[in-house]
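Regression check, zinc ion case 393:
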Amino acid sequence: MSIVTYNFPTRIRFGAGARRELSETIRSLGAARPAFVTDRGIAGLDWFAALVKATEADFETAVFSGIWGNPVGSQVMAGAKATRGHRADVIIAVGGGAAVDVAKAIAVMHRHDGTIMDFAWGPDMAPIDAAKLPPIIAIPSTAGTGSEVGRSAVISDDETHAKKIIFDPGLLPRIVLADPEVTLGLPAHLTAATGFDALTHLVEAFLTKEHHPMCDGIAQEGIRLVARSLETAVDCAKRQAAGEPVDAAQHLAARRDMLDASMMGATAFQKELGVTHSCAHALSTIADTHHGLANAVMLPYAMRFNLEAVPEKFLRLARIIDPKADDGADFIDWIVGLRARLDIPPGLTALGVSRDTLDDLIPVAVADMCHQFNPRPVTADDFRAIYSEAFAQ
Ligand SMILES: [Zn+2]
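Current build output:
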């Protein structure tokens, strides 16, 4: 057996109100000129305005909020212009996966020349000088990608929409202020889609063929938290939107579980991901589908493909949901049921993706790295079969 690496380095301050430790966290890093990086949606929220105001009382502070949709290189370059202009010495990444990823990419361009695509993973990539990277403090506002505990960023090319990976150990945020209160206002549909991204990370990480029992333990406990709390979080979000009474303690407890599960998912996928993510990455590239939603739609189809390769692992997952389960397929049935209860479409046609995209999706999925770690090898014909089943609904 080969020698493998186990690594869990992020410092996380977790709990309701953790965001209020921001000023002392900035000071602890010896920084004095923070620049917030966030998306347009977060920029308009009261808790964000209050956080910026409190920070401005202590430091010369800048805010860049030019992030929206699936983030592209030009957003990174505009953000780097803003952080350079401010002479920022720490970047405060606030938001979901997109905003945190852009903040990491801005950290690269803050003191490097060229464009962000020069640093994209590949044979011609320019080297990243870790000494030039300002520290990042991350405050996640969704419970899904867990980008706040990861060392890579996914940024799309402006013209081709191809997703590029920027990777460097220095992109790992120095400190995460994980505050479930900031996720309380997340709408039901985003809570469901991002929650399913977290679930997909946990499931795919557990199933990969890599050897990493520590990640396997984290993945199984994360799945237990999702099973316990994702429906409750979505239900509370729905009631909130409808003006119905919500049990505040129950809502916060569910959001805590999901924020933990999200970071556990991203920690577990140090062990790599699998075929679902290759399908989802192609859907984002070709059809601009939301990443979490793409995973949610594809997960059961991809797992039915995987079941025969690792039936004993599926049985272990099924027993997280029901200790008396004796068939691994029960776990896939649970995913299908959960997805329906969260009002997520059952297939790509229901999601509004045209079947005409099928021939374009396949080569992009084949070229994606994730499926190389899948427990069962995936050919172009396999992708065609998996997508075709997803288009049938
Ligand atoms: Zn994902």
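Comparison notes: The first strand starts at residue 11 and ends at 14. The chain has two domains: 11-182, 186-391. No diff flagged against the previous build.
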